Amino acid sequence: MTAKLGQFQAKSSLDDSTPRLIGSTGEGKPLPKSGSGLIERAFANPWLLLSLTCLFWGGNVVAARQAIGEISPMTLVTGRWALTCAILVLAARKAFMADLPTLAPKWPRILLMGLFGFTGYHTLYYVSAHYTPGLHIAILQGVTPVLVFIGAWLLWRTPVRLAQALGCLLTLVGVALVGARGELSQLAAMQFNLGDIGMLVASVFYGGYTLALRTRPAASPMGFFVALGFVALLTSLPLLGAEWALGELFWPTGKGLVILLYVAIFPTLLAQVFFIRGVELIGPGRATLFYNLTPAIGAIFSTVFLREPFEVYHAVALALVIGGVMMAERLGR
Q: I need a surface site. Which of 85, 88, 113, 190 has the fewest CB within 10 A?
């Protein structure tokens, strides 16, 4: 896999490697002929790669909840990026060095994208897991595509179709249902707990990061990812120090080490590489539709592996969130 990551470098143009906004189109590049080996064939299958991406992201919900008491949140955040960057140095250093002249003048933008899109998002994600069930994390992270859509309208006045507006409304109703804990009579006075609020703020951070990808530096996907990874590692260090100063830092147990390895390799490294490759093969417009699988997978995993009760309002909220996003993306085109 390390050799394969090293081979996957600057083959994508900016338009093909940058995720577009809800309702956008993009057919991507023609599918390459599959190689003779199993890995080559898998790496040429966008549907497999994007499905695995959502599977890994959904599993991150379970990892976040299982990490409680096993590894402190900032140890997990810093550790995941330390391990990921170590692998990237071996696998993608040539791509990064080739892109360095392009990336260096854009360091303020890269700093902000790594700080909010990676460090801020993951910090809030793992801290929120201490205060809210995994089901809520899974459902609330599904609001990100809608935030991207709203942000695109605010920033660039992207045309709004009726189906897109209705889809956004459905998704927001689903989020409100989570805040009201399924009590329709309490919608007017809904109260999100600290974890719910943390996940909503995290979704805003990742939505802003996604919007910034529209005008990211014209570097190769892997070179750009290396730069963001090191920014995430460096910007997590002050938060790790704060966690230590507050007496909240503790090193991972045996189970915590397993969780750390999982989040570093699967939701962080492989998911990002698979997503970049999937976008390269079929285009960003079609690839972003797969993101809708993540809340559903996270909810299923929370019920199966965390034994969290799956209430009727969870099903309704999940349907509203996913259905709203799909309406905005598909019918709004």
A: 190
The token pair that represents 216 in the structure block = 């990211």
13 inside domain: no
What percentage of the chain's residues is helix, strand, coil (to nearest 5)?
Answer: 75, 0, 25
C-beta of residue 279 within 8 angstroms of C-beta of residue 16: yes
Element containing residue 235 per DSSP (H, E): helix 221-245
Instruction: Evaluate whether 290 touches 53 at the Cβ level (below 8 Å).
Output: yes
Inside any domain, residue 17: no
- Total structural domains in the chain? 1
pLDDT band at residue 285 using 50, 70 and 90 as cut-offs: low
Q: So what's the pLDDT on residue 17?
A: 36
Answer yes or no: is 27 within a domain.
no
Q: Which domain holds residue 155?
A: 2-7+34-331
CB atoms closer than 10 angstroms to residue 142: 27
pLDDT at 286 over 80: no
On whether residue 12 sits in a domain, the answer given is no
Q: What is the mean pLDDT of residues 114-137?
A: 93
